[in-house]
Fold:
Amino acid sequence: MDTLLQQILNGLTLGGIYGLVALGLTLVYGILHVPNFAHGAFYMVGAFVSFHAMNAWGWNYWVAMAASALAVAALAVASERLVFHPLRKASGIHPMIAAIGVLLFLEAAAQALWGADFQRMQTPYTAIVDLGGITAPAQRLLIIAAAFALMVALHLFLTRTTTGATIIAMAQNREGASLVGIDAHRVAMLTFAISGALAAVAATLYAPINLVYPAMGHLVITKAFVIIILGGMGSVPGAIAGGLIIGFAESFGAYYVSTDYKDIIAFVLLVVILSMRPQGLFAKRGH
Amino acid sequence: MRRFIDSHAAWGLLLAAGLAFPWATGNDYHLTVMSTAYIFAIATLGLNLITGYTGQLNLAHAGFMAVGAYTVGILTVDHGWTFWGALALSGAVCVALGWFIGIVSLRLKGHYFSIFTLCVGYIMFLVIEKWESLTHGTVGIMGIPAPEPIGALAFESPLALYYLMLAFLVLAVWVMRRIVKSLLGRTFIAIRNGDELAEALGINLMRNKVLAFQLSVCYAGLAGGLYAGFVRFIGPGVAGVEHTFDMMIFMLVGGLGTVLGPLLGALAMPWLTQSLQFLQEYRFIVFGPILVALVIFLPHGVVGSFLAWQARRDAKEGKPHAQD
Structure:
């Protein structure tokens, strides 16, 4: 029973992180219809900025997280302006290849600035909390709380505010949104900023129980792609549900099947599901 | 001029340059760099068939190259096969695997296909890394034998290996040109230009896409097999997605959907990397922005843009011009 609860806790932790990363990816896909391969690099840069702010400048964990969210949001907006905006009319594989160019650049830059070594990020929350029989490191509980609080906040922003509604409108119908006077450029920049900030926060939350290194975004971004395909590209609830599915599949798979192969589980799940339902689990129609 | 760069004379000139290269350098290190470039050029030609001609970006291409390399590695080292037997099988294994992966993945369109193959590439990498009893895990396979002599031709020296790789590249280019000039090649181009359009012409989409995919990964598998025999050591890193990205850059610099473009890209870029030796680790700081700039400003690559310019000039002068 205890191990079961422990696995549920792990699943929620992973699901929260994956969900945050996938949300940013799915929002950008909804607006631009570009699978942003550079999103994993945004995640990695977020972790390094927080790490640097805490280690070199001695900033507080939360201040570093906020600074990193701002920095990565700015980076994401810059990449939208310089790379994706000029390519918005290009079709097919060109925007995808440009995104890969951004990814390669950011990884090499991070390696030049911070080195290829694995770094460990400190956290102010090292306590072990005892929850009626099951023990949990405080950082994990913090991840779960913060991730799901952010998801609720994002949901409220998208559904209850006019600015948020413009993003939804753009995702639903680009021409229609322009017709009612929504500025497409502003919405695209806003969406990139939100997606970058979410990636940076996710990375800063997860880094203390993981490691910080230039290639840290690879697996996370690939899993985030699996999640948004499962949940339907561009769907916000789908990204959260997909994040939890993959999170639980991994934590239970690692425990009951094999730790060696836990990273494969998400991909095998994707291959199996897409083989049977090419349009994804929740999507109503294929593309 | 246009007719020149696609003529027998131009290809002959390239071949002559390839044959004369060892006399121009006389340096084993340069021979090794060039031979490696030839191997990756073969794989890049394959990637170009599915991506440049058929319009499907396959991100598992390096994975298939690794499957070919490991086929040769495992069969020669653990099972005592000859290199040539194993090499023949490396292409066949990829064609068979490509059929299974093709019929599943090619039902997906556009981005879904790319993301799916990205995941397939990861699965290949992780399986190679974790399945120690078959693949020797992270240690890799060492001591792969060099290609056995054929008659009086021995392949021990770098010079002999260089000519062997050149011969395979020439064969690969010749077959690829036969494919893309044939009805089959035009069928692939029709699919790239639009699924619906191609279907309206009576093209069986799925069968042709799977065929293009199999041919493409066959090139990757054979290139992988040659790589194993040439470097004689392989590790799971061969399957890394960075190799696919490298090949994508070669293809894009030269020009998608031409035979000459990816070939020139694959031969020129390694030398550029060599000359930026001090940047080795950080080469993508330069290549990343180059890739982005190419996609934005020169989406058809060097060769593609030249051909387009040539076609426009011909059209202005009212000359008839041959379709590629």
Remarks:
- The first helix of chain B runs from residue 2 to 5.
- Residues 31-241 of chain B form one domain.
- Chain B touches chain A at residues 51, 55, 57, 104, 107-112, 114-116, 118-120, 122-123, 126-127, 130, 241, 245, 248, 252, 281-285, 287-292, 295-296, 299 (CB under 8 Å).
